[in-house]
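Design request, tokens follow.
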């Protein structure tokens, strides 16, 4: 378990479970998940044998306004956190949409690096969430590319269909491109992803064929590489380099202000 997590942190508990299943270390049962993986990951972190930051969990978070001890502190933090808007100089805008909140910590480093919104739906997105997203798309004059990652199961296949339909209804004139990039049938075969029985009590199971696969089953490095490839396909390298040079110069200027 230590070796698995050390290979590609951070990972969610569910991702660790699927990696152990794929390697034949444990059986693919909920009992192994709860009583082996969850139990031992807790034990390893409490004993400080595994860094707590190696396990991602974005389902629990704190709300607190940003505050400072002084003006100097505020300027120092501004210099440290200052970022140029990457997509202001690019020909399009990109958003990554994710079904599961727990995986946000696995993908955030990639989306943050390229200044891309990471939209977590937590299953079926609420009307207010979709309306706000559509409003932002309407205000954007550029083509917008949305890439969705979710489970390969009846609901996981239906959720992106609902999202795309509602966004197009709310932003009918937008140049919107929507693509579901995970989990696909090709990925299941290519990466030999662990499957589970499809829930027959799901009202959408009638039209679904085969067994189900959770997006958590995709190896973390493959998941991040998949997202990064989609993002960078819309970036002009020369414009990005110019922006990074300007950003570094402006960070230095802000740092100078904070020191005086």
């Amino acid at each position: 378990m230590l070796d698995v997590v050390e290979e590609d942190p951070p990972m969610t508990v569910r991702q660790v479970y699927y990696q152990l299943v794929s390697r034949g270390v444990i059986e693919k049962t909920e009992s192994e998940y709860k009583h082996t993986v969850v139990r031992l990951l807790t034990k390893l972190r409490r004993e400080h044998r595994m860094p707590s930051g190696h396990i991602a969990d974005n389902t629990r978070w704190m709300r607190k306004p940003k505050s400072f001890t002084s003006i100097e502190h505020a300027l120092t933090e501004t210099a440290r956190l200052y970022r140029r808007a990457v997509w202001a100089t690019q020909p399009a805008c990109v958003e990554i949409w994710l079904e599961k909140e727990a995986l946000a910590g696995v993908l955030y480093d990639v989306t943050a690096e390229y200044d891309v919104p990471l939209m977590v739906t937590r299953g079926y997105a609420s009307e207010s969430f979709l309306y706000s997203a559509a409003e932002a798309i309407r205000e954007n004059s550029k083509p917008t590319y949305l890439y969705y990652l979710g489970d390969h199961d009846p609901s996981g296949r239906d959720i992106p269909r609902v999202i795309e339909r509602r966004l197009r209804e709310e932003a009918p004139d937008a140049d919107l491109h929507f693509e579901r990039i995970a989990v696909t049938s090709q990925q299941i075969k290519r990466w030999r992803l662990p499957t589970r029985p499809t829930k027959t009590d799901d009202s959408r199971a009638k039209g679904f064929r085969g067994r189900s696969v959770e997006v958590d089953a995709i190896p973390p490095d493959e998941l991040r590489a998949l997202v990064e490839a989609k993002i960078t396909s819309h970036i002009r390298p020369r414009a990005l380099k110019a922006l990074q040079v300007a950003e570094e110069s402006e960070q230095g200027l802000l740092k100078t202000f904070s020191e005086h």
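Comment from the thread starter after seeing the answer: thanks! The chain has two domains: 2-54, 85-238.
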